[in-house]
Amino acid sequence: MAKGVVSEKMKLVVALITLQFCFAGFHIVSRVALNIGVSKVVYPVYRNLLALLLIGPFAYFLEKKERPPLTISLLVQFFLLALIGITANQGFYLLGLYYATPTFASAMQNSVPAITFIMACALRLEHIDLVRKHGVAKVLGTLVSIGGATVITLYRGFPMFHKSLNLHEEEQTESNQSQNWTLGWLYLMGHCLSWAGWMVLQAPVLKKYPAKLTLTSFTCFFGLVQFLVIALFVETDLNNWIIGSWEELFTILYAGIIASGLVVYLQTWCIYKGGPVFVAVFQPLQTLLVAAMAFLVLGDQLYSGSVLGAVFIMLGLYLVLWGKNQERKQTLEETSQQDPESLTKQLLEEH
Fold it and tell me: In the 8-state DSSP scheme, what is residue 226?
């Protein structure tokens, strides 16, 4: 029995580490795609097309019985979710990655739980209880995460690994990097806000339409349509739609099959087995993997400001997660005292 439990736990840990490797690889692959000249519009079009072709059949066959009937209201909500969670999210990410680095992008993404908490409070989906420890932890974690994002923006710091540049080249590079740093932060903040907004707004939609794979398929479909509309105005050169090298093909296949296909399955399985808090705890591992990959594969420089800001963001992330976990435990305890049958039902639903 004990061996079986350990084995299940090990499977979950291995799956979570694999998930973070897949995420980290996507940051590097996306940067490579931009470096070799893949269009910022063509890339997400192919990515979402592949994702739709992968997830669509599973959604159709596996969720036949649990799919509620479609209404105009639901389709409008799916369209808006795609606008925020696909078009704005992926668009801002690619623009931010173009002006910043994969490590910078990954570090910024750790602030998403804190931003989600702020949005949920603003929409009254979450309440702040400063009398209890978990409420203080969530607020403090949010402030620390925001502080970390601010440090990354305002304090570049010194390079962690020195490269041989002459003085003129160093000054020129520093000037360009400073300008790009700010633009990169602005776009990546848009990416994080879009991602957080998508998660907050998706929760009430899932209550009305619990077929997750079908919802994901509709979101991919509308996101694909929206990017195609943008492409009509932005990407008129047909040559940019032609995949001209194996490198381009690899980056597009990785984005569609691994980042939008395998990752969706792994993440869903991990959340089902370990819960959302346990899964989120592994998020900072992605930043460390990206930093190592970016240095080895792309030759990116790592600055002390990014490291310091990332540490603050990670600390804030763990405070928010700890607060959420403690709040959940307290809710379960209160439920068990009031209605034991309701507690049993809630535990069955979660596991």
Answer: H
